[in-house]
Amino acid sequence: MSDTVLVERDGGVAIVTLNRPDRLNSFTVEIHIALAAVLDGLASDSACRVVLLTGAGRGFCAGQDLSDRAVAPGSGQRNDLGESVEKRYNPLVRRLRGMAKPVIVAVNGVAAGAGASLALHGDIVLAAKSAKFIQSFAKIGLLPDTGGTWTLTNLLGEARAKALAMLGETLTAEQAASWGLIWKAVEDAELMAEARALAAHLATQPTAALAAIKQAVHLAATNTLDAQLDHERDEMRRLGFTDDYAEGVTAFMEKRAPRFTGEG
Fold it and tell me: DSSP alpha helices (H): ranges in 44-89?
């Protein structure tokens, strides 16, 4: 296993750390392969009920490591960036959004380019107050990838999405929180403690219900109201047959804390 991605287990929580601190955890093929393997393993691991993603060192992720696919000026050489997006970045987005358990992202420093896009695919995103989000693509002649144009537009609207992507201006963590781009900005020294506490709490909750909430919110971006009502009906029917629902109701009636197993 590559040491570019570290995994720590804490009960039902898996803390996944991007680990190229000398390069601000920027992406290479190696880190893509390692992260894909880790996420696939956690997705199928019933003992893992929450994933917490963060970065080592002073940054979360600076996006693509440009030295990994550098082109010499005047050489006439070109790289097929679409191949990288298709084989690496798009599957990463689909892994995170399709995972049937919560994904918390703790942004501990700069999140730039694909790193900013990656962070915003967390189900709950916390950021240190010193963290910064930068859509740096236009500065090198590109557009946001890793779902960046979709996420920015759906979370912020066209005006802010276009301005952030075209200007590449730095967005502070506190501004990102006030705009509704992330859940909250916290003091730097408290980031991981708060993220771990949040993850530990979610690991005790009904995992199937949390996964259903995640999926339903994703579908709401494109569903009609009628389609969403039908989806909610079908999911309520399914969840109503789970042991966690029975335990939740019993605990409520008995005025005690529920003991959820996380099983659907």
Answer: 81-84
